[in-house]
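Field reference: sequence -> structure
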Amino acid sequence: MVSFYKSEKKATALKAIELQCESLDIQGRGVCKKDGMVYFVDNLMPGEKARVVPVANNAIAGSLASKDKAFSGNVSKLLEASCDRRAQDCPLQNQCGGCPLEHLPQDMSLKAKVEGVASLLAKSVAQGTIASKSTKVSSSKGSSKLGRNSTIKQVLAKKQADAKNTARNKELVELSKQAASAIATPSFCISGDEINYRRACRLAVKADHGKIYLGFREGKAQDLVPVDHCKVLTARNNALLEPLRVLVNTLEGKKNIGHVELLDTDGAVGVLLRMTKNVSSGDEERLAKFGLEQGVVVSVLEPFKQLDDTEVVRERVISQDNERELYVMSHDCKIACSPSSFVQVNGAMNKAMIEQVLKEVAPSQDKKVLDLFSGLGNFAIPIAKAGAKVVGIDIVSDMVRRANENAQLNNIDSEQARFFVADLEEAFESQLWAKDQYDVVVMDPGRMGAKRSVGYMSKLKPQKIVMISCNPLAASRDTTALISSNYKLESWGAIDMFPRTAHLEIMLVFTRDDSKK
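Structure field:
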């Protein structure tokens, strides 16, 4: 899931220089070159000329330039604007950090992100292909009828081995180029509405002179930008911004609010308040009244002391009835959730993504599927409903509990779909589910990727792996590892889950390549 704010290391500003933008990088930044240096500039488009203040830091992730020859940069003055530059349609564009690519036409920003992913994957496929074959390079010492300790024999043997290795290395390079070329373009690229799509969001909180303000973070800084309307939020989320601002300022414990979350589901809207202290009875009444008046489900995350005196944070629903139900639709399945649940922020793109996963998995009664990082069952339950047997794994016990309940909600018994708790970044190989055999593995990890799980695939050996990723850098690393373990990147596609941002959801399909022996 993409966030509106990401902290970065402190940067050092340099003297402004004049630059011409040549292209866009994977993050939608303008790429400029001058005097052997490469500059990655926010809010700059191809063909534009600007005065740019270079910034010496490490914020060049996803670039192909070496760090000692690359800078990021900020536009101090736009000298020549592109005719493709979009007019500002949000008054907070220069403050809020939520839509850094608002100035780009949607097709242009998507094209830049997809091309950046393609470049990363090409390198990963080439590296993985060479790694999977490199042990086959000749280590022969050659042959000769001369004596065992003959110097001439040793020289000839070395020449023979060098010749074989050189030929083999050339063959590997050619194979890697062919493999990279085969996946140069995505098999699908799906986009949708770029406004009013965001059904889940987190509002930051700021107290100033006794008043509470709700909003988003300012660009790369931590300052809060108060927001009463956001173009990317759904209409129902936008309608709650002002009532929520009024509500939080009436609470006795308003200074204890860490943040506020909104979740616009296919049922009702959920509102979550993260509290640093327990909610008072008076505030509980106010929250319950707000839920009734607005027709929303209200819950709080607050400290809770367990029987062993350890303190945890738990969610407690304040206001809900049978007419206000929280759920999202995954294909034709109803997935119940709570205001704190993680769901994909873009409902339309999630629907399209599930369709692609079902197409690749091709569920049938004789097929067994493992869903890693399964969450509420976004993929697992539709796959099980379509006939396959599914085992889902997630680290969050509440998610696993809800996933099992969601299976029952969709009339799927425990023989068809089961969910278990496991930390997929720690030792899990001894668990019973991990020792079973699966035809297909589906995985949708967080931004850190699935390094340990990918490593386990060489032992599990499923015929197909469908990987979802919101971090192309982590996905490219995991791609190299899978190809090194006798898998082939069969195809990949892009889903524009987060329009107007530098983020992109991708789906990669790997098949077992038993020819690599």
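Note: Confidence is low (pLDDT under 50) at residues 1-8, 59-64, 136-142.
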